[in-house]
Amino acid sequence: MVATVSSRPKQVPCDLQYADWRDGPVRTATAELASELAAARAAVRTGAGAAIGSAMRRALPTAIAMAAQPMPRCADTGGIYADLVDDVYRAGARARSATGPGGLLKAAAMLGQASAVEQQLTAEITHSIGTGHCAQEHAGPAWPPC
Fold first, then answer.
1. Which residues contact 62 (CB under 8 A, 6 or more apart)?
2. What is the model's pTM?
3. What is the mean pLDDT of the chain?
4. DSSP conformation class of 12
5. Which range has the top average pLDDT, 48-52, 76-80, 112-116?
6. Is omega for the bond preceding 144 within 30 degrees of 0, making it cis?
7. Distance between CA atoms of 19 and 13, rounded to whole angstroms?
8. How far apart are CA 40 and CA 54, in angstroms?
9. What is the mean pLDDT of residues 20-34?
10. Contacts of 49 (CB under 8 A, 6+ apart)
């Protein structure tokens, strides 16, 4: 009997695909997003228009960096990651075209929507891959989740 070699590539488990994505180049973009969200919240609390604009204008390149690293489909079955990227992009674009404090506050509100989308996406990821695969020593930003 002759042994045959399967021509089908072996499917990488979803939790490994996700971990590779999370710990890859997207890590920098998601860390920047966390920083931008915190800076925008702080600026909105103080009402400092210049600080709001500064925090918000960085959102556009962050969204572009995030878009270049799509999440594995097995972890994002609903395509929510694209919604997150879109919210961040639109907030950055609105901040760049804002002509006054009102426009900047609207842009900040749009970036705030990204937090809600992150929560939805975290629930989807947890449902898709669970949390049992996470290493205890995982040291990284709070989002994307382990």
1. 29, 32, 33, 36, 88, 92
2. 0.81
3. 84
4. P
5. 76-80
6. yes
7. 10
8. 8
9. 91
10. 100, 101, 104
- The length of the chain in residues reads 146
For 17, residues 6+ apart whose C-beta sits below 8 A from its C-beta are 72, 74, 75
The mean pLDDT of 59-78, rounded to a whole number, is 93
pLDDT bucket at 21, cuts 50 / 70 / 90: very high
Rounded (10°) CA dihedral 9, 10, 13, 18:
-30
57 token code pair:
């204008």
What DSSP assignment string belongs to 113-146?
A: HHHHHHHHHHHHHHHHH-STT--TT--S-SSS--
Asked if 104 and 56 touch (Cβ cutoff 8 Å), the reply is yes
Q: What is the dihedral of CA 56, 59, 60, 65, to 10 degrees?
A: 170
Residue type, 99: T
